[in-house]
Design a protein that fits this description.
This protein is of the alpha/beta class. It has a single domain, classed as 3-Layer(aba) Sandwich (Rossmann fold), CATH 3.40.50.1000. The strands form two sheets. Strands 5-4-1-6-7-8 form a six-stranded parallel sheet, with helices on both faces. It has a two-stranded antiparallel sheet with strand order 2-3. Helix 2 links the parallel strand 4 and strand 5. The longest helix has 13 residues.
């Protein structure tokens, strides 16, 4: 049973594109469907964390908006951060699902119980993960969450928050 979701940002929660204004302000777009599902999972008692290699005020804002309790930015070794978080929460690797799309996610994806990648991820990480139908930034995190809910036999509880 999955208890903890680990989320990458660029290429998963977003499409991986970074836009800068002429003033140097960074812009990213996030999918509302991902956010809707993440926020519901948090309400249901699932643990959710963002682990990203970059530092971004936008990501901090998005994490707060979605009530994501754990945010790790500027991370070089995502697996080490995940191991520390699991130790803190008393969660085993087989109880963890993660989504990533690039080589900096590889070790983490190999370590967790359920690894997911968007369909536009690198082949290296596709070879060790469940490949989703959706691309990064196109509600692929929502697709992953729905698969986890089915595997956990938790769909009805998720739906009962809204119907």
């Amino acid at each position: 049973m999955i208890k903890l979701l680990l989320l990458d940002v660029d290429g998963c929660l977003s499409d991986g594109k970074i836009t800068y204004t002429h003033d140097g302000v960074e812009l990213k777009s996030f999918n509302v469907r991902d956010g809707f599902a993440i926020k519901t999972l948090v309400k249901m008692g699932y643990q959710v964390a963002i682990i990203t290699g970059r530092d971004s005020a936008i990501v901090e804002l998005r994490a707060k908006e979605l009530d994501i309790p754990y945010l790790f930015q500027g991370v070089k070794d995502k697996q080490a951060v995940a191991q520390q978080l699991c130790a803190q929460l008393g969660i085993f690797p087989e109880e963890v699902a993660a989504i990533g799309d690039d080589l900096n996610d590889y070790r983490l994806l190999k370590w967790v119980g359920s690894a997911f990648v968007p369909n536009d991820a690198l082949e290296y990480v596709k070879s060790i993960s469940h490949v989703l139908e959706r691309s990064g930034g196109d509600a692929c995190v929502r697709e992953m969450i729905e698969k986890i809910l089915k595997a956990n036999d938790d769909e009805e509880r998720f739906l009962n928050f809204w119907i």
